[in-house]
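Notes, p. 3: input format for complexes.
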Amino acid sequence: MLHQFDLSGKVALVTGATHGLGMAMAKALGKAGATVVINGNTPKKMENALLAYAKEGLKVHGRLFDVTDEPQVIEHIAAIEKEVGPIQILVNNAGMIERVPALEMEVAAFRRVLDVDLTGPFIMSKQVAKYMVARREGKIINICSMMSELGRNTVSAYAAAKGGLKMLTRNLATEWAKYNIQVNGIGPGYFATDQTAPIRVEGHPFNEFIINRTPAGRWGDPDDLGGTTVFLSSKASDFINGQIIYVDGGILATIGKPANEK
Ligand code: GCO
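Output follows (262 residues plus D-gluconic acid):
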């Protein structure tokens, strides 16, 4: 049974994997046997990331490109296919967030969040799927969010993008299942990363709120995502299409509890 989860001989491309959740998922795929290609858009972060992977015995390939720039995406995917091998697994993780009240948010900022968090995954999926369709095989995993299901003050652009990413996942799953391409999503709850560092500081009201709002009573550790990532990248998920698996410590399962209730 466990051989179903073995990714040996498979090439996995993870966007936004120079740090945070992307790095944790890429490491898990590497430890499950995949040859990992990571994408980033900052040379220094890429340099540091490759060292961090090497420290864990993982030799990964690094490529710097902007997931919202289709010509760059086409060029780099062609190069990966040629130099590394057929991409069997794509994890669309690269994303950004702007925490600004909607009434104060500039349209340009709104558009940028949508471009990175929604159009980027579309561009990546479309260009990688062209190769997967020819091979009648592929796994695409879109990294959604609690904001794919819930709203919260100041993150309208991000919630709109992540809600759209949930439906893009279902639509691509619908169109490409006949090519034996499984398109699914992972919805992380609140995780301890650089992206959440500003709202996680000791004593910050949001930090207390999240710990109280999460039945597991803690922020997620990026390594909590590894198993689900490997599962959705493996043969074990060959009949799963268009599903979003929420790794959230129970947030979406509950209405929450009074602040003074333990
Ligand atoms: C926020 C957080 C969230 C989390 C994650 C939750 O400001 O609410 O950054 O967006 O990062 O997306 O699933």
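The chain is about 40% helix and 15% strand.
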